[in-house]
Amino acid sequence: MKLLVWNVQGIGNPWTSNSLLSLVKIYDPNILFLLETKMETRNVMFLRNKLGFCDDFSVSRVGLSGGLILMWKANCVVNVCSSSNFFIDAWISSPDILPWRFFGFYGNPDSNQRGHSWELLRRLRFAHSGAWLCADDFNEILNSNEKLGGGIKSQRAIDEFRNAVDDFQICDLGFVGDPFTWCNNHPNDLIYERFDRGFGNIDWVNRFPNTTVEHLEAVCSDHRPLLFSFGLRQGIVRCGRKRRLNRFHFEEAWSNDPGCGEVITSYWEAPSVLGSAASLRDKLDWCGLKLQRWGRDNFKNLGNDIKLLRQKLSSLSSSHSLQDWEESNRLEKTLVGLMHKEELYWKQRSRVNWLKDGDKNTKFFHRKASNRRFKNEILGVCDENGCWQTEVGLVKSVFNDYFEAIFRSSNPSLDLIKEVTMSIPCRVSAEDNTFLLRPFVAAEVKAALFDMNPTKAPGFDGLPALFFQKY
Prior knowledge:
Strand order of the largest sheet: 3-4-2-1-15-14
Mean pLDDT: 82
Helix content: 40-55%
Radius of gyration: 29 Å
């Protein structure tokens, strides 16, 4: 499914109308959301028929500004729940996609009134459940990197927007293309900002993990149109979504299972004919392989095991016999253990260190892990010519060319190298140098190891500091 959103800044201009018609013909969106149309409701039908949509819902302009329009094709069912001069809230479904909620949003252009926009976001969060998509012009940025040119943005305004997003429990869906969506078009003082964007809640991220947000070219408007592609039919291929073989990672939840220690001990005590260094490397690799198989056999269906235990406890709750009571107690202890393992599993992926496990924060950790995945994903890169590349092979070439260029030697002469090094002041004394060059001792290695966070980024072998600290 495709959704096109655009702050057109007045649709009455024939050039803007033709640009919109061209976008609809090229990208064929199922749903169209327009802001600042500056149109009366009675004139929307002519525009809808011209663009080829079957139905619409509109909010009329106020004076000579404002105006919202939501249009959709015949394959979509749209139920508008509420609206105002600054938003349209609707449930949308189609034959191949379950219902989802769209919140077309327009942040108040008056900075003194923008707090009311953020309060509106907070209130609407509790109105409905399910998959959420909140999109279009927020008239604010999330960080200072989203502005180029002009004066420094008020940090207070940025923080208020970020707090509203956190309270709303939604995450930025990222983008493909130019990083800025708005330009003031003043040749003597150009300012670029990312005002237009899309947010999704955790249900949206889980249901539509391949959502793409493409920044299209701005024509006849200060704002770029945004094209959302999601669901079963994707509009563009994302280089970061190619499925790959899972690399081994030691799970913190395994360390609480006695079976994990038994696997490690049985393999670690096996004789080796290799040298000390090679033997250590060989044992770590094979130990990781054995643990991966053991973990797959014992932890693969953790969610299903929890669900089955809950069902068994529910069936036993109506019985008052001693035997069933004892069985319920046994199942309850098992369930608590499995829930703790599940919590540790998602905590390790969320990289949240300030919140301790034990508070049944599984859903929170799951949301943080999903947000982290979206934040770290590489959708594409700009090559040396400024062209946006998303094809996997081209993205690899851009990375290779970049690092080859910065690490390639220019083959300077020895005299030039000596001249440069002689110009660098000495910062390390002879005594310090002797201290740094002395051999490592076991106590230093152990102290450094136990100072490390147990589950932070493991090495290439997939073993974090926790493995060596405990075993």
